Amino acid sequence: MAAFGFQGTRDLSPQQMVVREKILDMVIDCFKRHGAKRLDTPAFELKEMLTEKYGEDSGLIYDLKDQGGELLSLRYDLTVPFARYLAMNKVKRMKRYQVGKVWRRESPTIVQGRYREFCQCDFDIAGQFDPMIPDAECLKIMCEVLSGLQLGDFLIKVNDRRILDGILAVCAVPQSKFHAICSSIDKLDKIPWKDVRHEMVAKKGLAPEVADRIGDYVQRHGGVSLVEEMFQDSRLSQNKQALEGLGDLRLLFEYLTLFGIAEKISFDLSLARGLDYYTGVIYEAVLLQTPAQAEECLSVGSVAAGGRYDGLVGVFDPKGHTVPCVGLSIGVERIFAILEERMKTAGLKIRTTETQVFVATPQKNFLHERLKLISELWDAGIKAELLYKNNPKLLTQLHYCEHMGIPLVVIIGEQELKEGVIKLRSVASREEVAIKRENLVAEIQKKLSES
Where along the sequence do coiled-coil regions lie (predicted)? Predict the structure, then answer.
């Protein structure tokens, strides 16, 4: 099991790293399939680059000690560094992915897979393109990753910041309160409407009738038919911003239908996504729990999220040149928590090494022969191990193979040396065959390709 590091961090055991690598490999394969290039950026950024980009969350940024006038902070996500990279390098078009650690001064709730240091996997499309084609591809990628990881049934909620702003405007929310009210709406997936309404009225000073008007909108969700319904809404259809957002969502649903994923998408008017930099379509994927899972209370919140942020690059560009961007982030820690829990429940044994062949001997004074033999295997690209002992017992060597799940053993002793052969033993079936020394590598490769 994992040892927890200091607060909000953890050490990952070899067993956990195996599970983690499988998740990352699957995610990265998907990103590559969609033509993305890999990018990496430093773990820290200039503090001024990060503040004011995250709204209420900017208090969670880790600041580093002032080292001679340089104020630096650990990166909070991979999106802001990407936007900074595009601006500094005057890149106008790029499809990139990045995998790396980010840091947040959260009060960690470990059970939900929330940490102060965690890994993010991001995919983004930057550039001026025809509307909603890249956005639809981002949602397709989310579906491919979540289906591929076999996490169970999921739903992707979609909304648009312009629709949300339009709703607040037509409900007569003062512009100065937009942000505060948005962050209340964003809690609707965790707490009921009456509590959200109470927060808006009692804590944020909104008139009760304004809150009720907002409630009529934000409790609604559905498919493309709800988009059409909103077009017909007498109040909302008066708002230019909301109409633009609805127009884009209508187009988005058309493309999602062509991609065969429309039934996985829900137009959800309560989705707000707290971050300040989103400008258009926003989305969030949640796992749908079976009744049994609900009883276990393994609630993990969203497992992937993202949206369109057309203004962020311009913030870093001295001349304010913008590059439209849309992207998504996969929540590796939460997915990892779910898969780990499942493997524990199923009692699955995880192999922590990929060793294919073990080099053994039944006799004393055979270390030199074993070393020559294993070197041949390594040079041929075969993953091989031996015990670091001059004269190990054969039983000890075979037990090690069983314990580590190593499939093949090659055995060399006096008899084999005399006859110019090597014994090849299958650990599972315990069958042994004698193979000519010079054919050993070819025979092992053949066996491995069959298994």
Answer: none
